Amino acid sequence: MTRKTATPRAGKGEQTRAKILDAALALFMERGFEATTMRAVAEEADVSLGNAYYYFESKEELVQAFYEKSHQEHLAATAPRLDGERDFRKRVLATLHAKIDTSEPYHRFSGVLFRSAADPQSPLNPFSGASKRVRDEAIALMERVVDESSLGPPADLRRELPYLLWLYEMGVILFWIFDTSRERRRTRVLIDRTVPIVTRLIILGANPILAPLRKAVLRLIRDLRDGDALSEAGAR
Amino acid sequence: MTRKTATPRAGKGEQTRAKILDAALALFMERGFEATTMRAVAEEADVSLGNAYYYFESKEELVQAFYEKSHQEHLAATAPRLDGERDFRKRVLATLHAKIDTSEPYHRFSGVLFRSAADPQSPLNPFSGASKRVRDEAIALMERVVDESSLGPPADLRRELPYLLWLYEMGVILFWIFDTSRERRRTRVLIDRTVPIVTRLIILGANPILAPLRKAVLRLIRDLRDGDALSEAGAR
DNA sequence: TGCAATTATTGAACGCGTTCAACAAGGAGC
DNA sequence: GCTCCTTGTTGAACGCGTTCAATAATTGCA
Of A49-53, B160-164, B201-205, which gets the smallest average pLDDT? Predict the structure, then answer.
């Protein structure tokens, strides 16, 4: 077998990239973000320092990988919990709890993600172009939550609902990041008690009496969304 | 006159501290946060690098001064605009627009503030102990906005309203930070169109029919607030 | 097969934020 | 005046993230 000559075909760079990423993930988990030096990552990956920067523009860019990984785990954990469940409230509950469950291992350094999240300059912020793929997938998940439920929201609301639910999820995560309670109990409480309220609001919003208010809110959201100041700054 | 010997009494350290702060503010305004080095600050202040660190623990701590300064300017700008105005909606509008007006000069590096804002570790985050004084004053301002208006919210809502309005203000500022439109037009739109909605929601919330929903929301907020996961992490 | 072009990899350097041992100034108590 | 103690101040160092010119390895093409 042409061992040493057969593998190079299969993306030499890809392999090195993966090696570096794995090393970084391991060290971040072990020591946290700040305590992990790029030199340590390079050494752990059996690679020179400069080489690490050939594959990743910055230390923070390594964190983006977590964002992706954590998202994939969220998808995997959510799917079975949604299966056969038609109740909208329960579907949202399941999705959010799954998010917290799968994010738990990364809690200690996920603050870094949101630190950049609030920085318009950073490509890591959830509204940026770099985050677009993951963001779109997360919104698509919320679409499934809505569509396969028994809830039948008015068409105008239906259109914006997935995006709004994603924003809501982002809010929950922001709370979770600051949450130092045992087993993230407070975040659980937040979820368990806001989801029913959100559900009630959506049902209320479907009521014709409140149509003017609902339409005002939705028009505003649409206006601020496409050509949104947020994504505008992020896409840059 | 005992010039050179009279002044040292008057807080030698205070003077040096002020010199460093002034230099930092000037340079931040001129070049932004990242482009300003601590060495430049020290030089501008005619002081050694080490000396700057005698007065300020870190570069970011220098930014906190802006937070305070900007807040004082907000207070000063808001007072006359509230004078004689009793309409709640207009009072909130005036307060928020004043905030954007006075913050404008700092727009380019205020992202730094919110970067730390989302970092639970940082003393700069608006929920932290270090920010308590300014936060309390900002909430007190919202108290004045509510109390001297013609609005008569139910007592339970009245109690939480200032805090909620402050959170709302924080949300607006977050949007503003990401806003790259000319003269921050988008943020103006956001304010002009969400304030009426918020006002309507508050009035709706006063309606007895919606009392259960209102009470559920308020109970939740109270529960999450004192011993709040946010301030809990921040006060640390 | 040979050669240019592309892709990987290195190690040394730079500039930055931050720390620290050392030293100076200025008072308080004798 | 002298000693001790607190407060200020310095400059050199450290470790870090990041950059870059140089070089090796690999690939695409004639």
Answer: B201-205
Burial annotation A194-220 (CB, 10 A radius, 16+ → b, else e): bbeeebeebeebbeeeeeebbeebbeb
Q: How far apart (Å, rounded) are the C-alpha atoms in residues A130 and A60?
A: 12
Helical residues (DSSP H) of chain B, grouped into ranges: 3-6, 12-31, 38-44, 49-55, 59-82, 88-103, 107-117, 132-147, 155-178, 185-206, 211-225, 229-235
Nucleotide nearest to A12 (CA to C1'): C8
* Over residues B85-89, mean pLDDT: 96
For the ranges A74-83, B115-124, B133-142, the lowest mean pLDDT is seen at B115-124
Shortest Cα–Cα distance, A116 to chain B (Å): 6
* DSSP secondary structure letter of residue A43: H
Closest among B18, B52, B54 to B37, alpha carbons compared = B52
pLDDT grade for A126, boundaries at 50, 70 and 90: low
Joined together, the tokens standing for residue B210 give: 């919606």
| Over residues A50-76, mean pLDDT | 91
For A230, the token pair is: 């947020």
A207 secondary structure, DSSP code: S
Which positions in chain B touch A58 (Cβ < 8 Å)? Answer: none
Residues close to nucleic acid strand D (C-beta < 7 A): A 8-9, 12, 36-39, 49-50, 53, 57-60; B 11-14, 16, 47-51, 54
pLDDT above 90: residue A129: no
Task: Tell me the pLDDT tens digit for each residue of B207-231.
Answer: 999 899 899 889 888 888 765 444 4
Chain B residues within an 8 Å CB radius of A122: 115
Nearest neighbour of A200 by CB, restricted to B115, B118, B213: B213
- For strand C, the positions having any atom within 7 A of a protein Cβ are 7-13, 15-21, 26-27
Nucleotide nearest to A36 (CA to C1'): D16
Please say if the pLDDT value at position A231 is more than 60.
no
